[in-house]
Predict the 3D structure of the following.
Amino acid sequence: MYHLNESLMQSAKQFSDRPAFIFMGETTTYAQFNKQVEHLAAGLARHGIGKGDAVALLMDNRPHFVSAYYAILRVGAVVVPMNPIYTAREISFILSNSKAKAAIALSALQPVLTPMKDQIEDLQLLIYTESIENEITIDQLVQEGQESETGYAEPERNEDDLAVILYTSGTTGQPKGAMLSHRNMASNAEAMGILFELVPEDRMVAVLPMFHVFCMTVCMNGPIRTGAAIIIVPKFHPADVLQTIREQKATCFAGVPTMYNYLLQLPTATKEDFSSIRIYCSGGASMPVELLHKFEAKYDAKVLEGYGLSEAAPATTFNPLHGTRKPGSVGVDIPLVKNKVVDPEGNEVARGEVGELVVHGPNVMIGYLGLPDDTAAALRDGWLYTGDMARMDEEGYVYIVDRKKDMILVDGYNVYPREVEEVLYQHPAIIEAAVIGIPDEVHGEAVKAFVALKEVAVSQEDIMAFCRDKLAKYKVPRQVEFVAELPKNSTGKILRRSLRTS
């Protein structure tokens, strides 16, 4: 049965004395971790949290996140992970929309959350990470659970039970809550274990935000399922991450392309610093091929690029650990999952042709919370329509061309931003780049590039001339804007939509 609770209980039984996570040099074993979850779950149950209740988690990377996540699941409740730096308006919307009965949050959020308790009908319980006068803390709940004579009635477990609601940032309107079952989450965690050949001796760096599904599945649920250790890093600072990898002898690193770019720019880092790592994986956004080659050459590394989305818990393709890795490709079907590329009518297109990527497997969400029309548009005949344009080669390797909605139309020709960005990354003075479409009276749209530079004097004309040698005329940026750095979301993914509104 695919169930996240069973995964942890199994590992606590099999690997009781092995490290479950390491944080700031302190190690917690699987037996200790399971005990914390047990007590915290009993504490939550004492406060009326039970089967089907939504509980929001607003935390950065810390052990409390992992134990709260699993304790919520153990009482049969549903985790609603949230970025703790969201605005009050964003937090309020998600709490209301998910009908969250409780929120477990950083103490710094108390001034934001306390007024919401009176404003949001379902919200009854607020729990904080550190002690605040007249407020309940996680440690208090653990204490209560420990002292509870009766414990709590374990709910019936079913792999179709809702486990997590992930809010995807909508490009228009409000975010949508993707409902993911235990089967969705646990099957994808299992696929990661198979794909990366995870073993109890592995030590996975968790520096991606834990509230994000990439970290949740690859760096948390995958390792817990296999009894591996999670090295929890609170924030991404390249030099700190390098030191952690070296000191903790990390074996697996998962990051987004921006992180790889920052690690590449570290002036004193050498391949010896990374010698303990056997697997690097990248996701969250397409990795520019030039960056991949430079990183691999500098650190004698092999980066496995993959693809996923919240609605698929998240992974659907990855370059294989053994066999052919194709730079620029996000790989082939992962275990248990099938991908294909289709035309607007849902018919599979010929290999090499561009269409929409669709996905089928036990990882595909139940639907969007309270949005039947959006669910019907995304889920058709058991296939999830991703909204990403892709092509598949003869060997089944998928190449993401771009988001459907990011495509630029110049004189009726399709321009995919990624293709232009790949060229920009080849320019020796450019550190990072992003491309958008801007209105153009003559051509419909024109290409505009935003670039962040190394400390080199380069003009707009230099960059346009560089692109003219490598791109068809209509794809060459008509404008180039120099920026100190590009806007990014919490995982480090470059936000094109912020550039459109700037």
